[in-house]
């Protein structure tokens, strides 16, 4: 299916659609443990007109680490961090800042992650950042109870980004929490969340084989 979608997106000249499909193919082969194929599709993402964001750098780092190429993986983590910083410089938006908090955490720089988080969380800062972005940053730092509280706040405030955040992989450790399940039910997202859980479990099972 994804191969046909890639052909269609290429024929239509949709760079965004092509990039999303390539990332889907990379994830598929990564979940199967076919590292070379996964890296091949990731390389096509980088070669595309729009390039790749910091998350694609972390994907390459993750694949290399699973292949035992730890030094190379660390280099890609540093590249991911640099890409996240560039995104902040270009947009100066809270989504980019939240990404940078997560990038610091993934790069093994908890002090930098916490320092940036504290700046974003300053009650005197205006405009205030969305609680959904706050939840994402907290989950990236593995502060899951606080992330869950932020998601509840997002629901109470009608945060438009909350539904998408429920399906972010960083939230998977919250899936069995009754409070998280209540939010999922309130938003009618049971099937999509269960699909995310199953896909993650299958991916982990394939990687252990």
Structural commentary:
Helices cover 75% and strands 0% of the residues. The chain contains twelve helices and no strands. The chain is mainly alpha-helical and 209 residues long. It is globular, with a radius of gyration of 18 Å.
Sum up the structure in keywords.
mainly alpha, 209 residues
Strand proportion, as a percent range, falls in: under 5%
Please mark out the parts with pLDDT under 50 across 5 or more consecutive residues, or reply none.
Answer: none
Principal-axis shape: globular
Distance between the termini: 25 Å
Rg measurement, Å: 18 Å
Number of strands: 0
Mean pLDDT: 86
Helix content: over 70%
Main sheet makeup: none
The helix tally amounts to: 12
> Strand pairing plus helix content: what structural class?
mainly alpha
What is the ordering of alpha helices and beta strands?
A: HHHHHHHHHHHH
Quick recap:
With 209 residues, this protein is mostly helical. It contains 12 helices and no strands.
Describe the SSE topology.
Elements: H1 2-12, H2 15-31, H3 35-47, H4 54-66, H5 70-91, H6 94-106, H7 110-120, H8 131-140, H9 144-156, H10 162-166, H11 178-186, H12 190-208
Helix pairs in contact: 1-2, 2-3, 3-4, 4-5, 5-6, 6-7, 6-8, 8-9
């Amino acid at each position: 299916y994804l191969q046909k979608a890639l052909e269609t997106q290429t024929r239509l000249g949709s760079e965004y659609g092509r990039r999303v499909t390539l990332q889907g193919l990379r994830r598929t082969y990564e979940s199967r443990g076919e590292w070379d194929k996964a890296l091949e599709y990731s390389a096509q993402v980088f070669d595309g007109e729009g390039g790749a964001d910091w998350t694609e750098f972390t994907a390459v780092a993750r694949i290399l680490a699973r292949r035992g190429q730890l030094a190379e993986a660390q280099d890609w983590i540093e590249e991911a961090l640099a890409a996240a910083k560039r995104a902040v410089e270009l947009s100066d938006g809270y989504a980019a800042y939240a990404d940078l908090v997560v990038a610091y955490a993934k790069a093994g720089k908890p002090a930098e992650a916490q320092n940036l988080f504290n700046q974003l969380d300053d009650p005197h800062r205006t405009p205030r950042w969305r609680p959904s972005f706050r939840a994402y940053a907290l989950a990236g730092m593995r502060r899951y109870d606080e992330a869950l509280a932020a998601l509840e706040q997002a629901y109470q405030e009608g945060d438009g980004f909350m539904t998408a955040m429920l399906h972010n992989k960083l939230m998977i450790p919250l899936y069995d929490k009754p409070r998280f399940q209540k939010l999922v039910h309130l938003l009618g997202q049971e099937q999509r969340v269960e699909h995310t859980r199953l896909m993650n479990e299958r991916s982990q099972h394939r990687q252990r084989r």
